[in-house]
Write a structure and sequence with these properties.
3 helices; 97 residues; globular; alpha+beta; 4 strands
């Protein structure tokens, strides 16, 4: 399910609380402008998928966004967050790589 090599974008969503995810959607749409390939291969993970994931990829709160590079989690944000708190660190991280 999760690609091992390279940088991966993982979005953890829970349809039961979609109103908490609006800032994540906005950040992902902004990311798509600069990093379309990364966003197009983004993995969307629902609560039903969690039992198939490795323990290090588990999140405590939905929504969440993780960026992995190989086996390493290089960025994560969980729970309600403003778009800028999601987008700015991701852009800074990706532009450095």
């Amino acid at each position: 399910m999760i690609q091992i090599d390279g940088v991966n974008l993982l979005f953890f969503t829970n349809d039961a609380h979609y109103e908490k995810e609006i800032s994540y959607y906005d950040a992902i749409l902004e990311l798509r402008k600069t990093y379309p390939t990364l966003v197009n291969k983004m993995k969307v993970i629902t609560p039903n998928d969690l039992d198939r994931l490795e323990k290090e990829l588990q999140v405590d709160e939905f929504p969440a966004l993780l960026i992995t590079n190989g086996d390493d989690i290089i960025f994560s944000v969980e729970g309600t967050a403003p778009k800028e708190d999601i987008l700015n660190p991701v852009v800074q991280l990706l532009s450095a790589n």
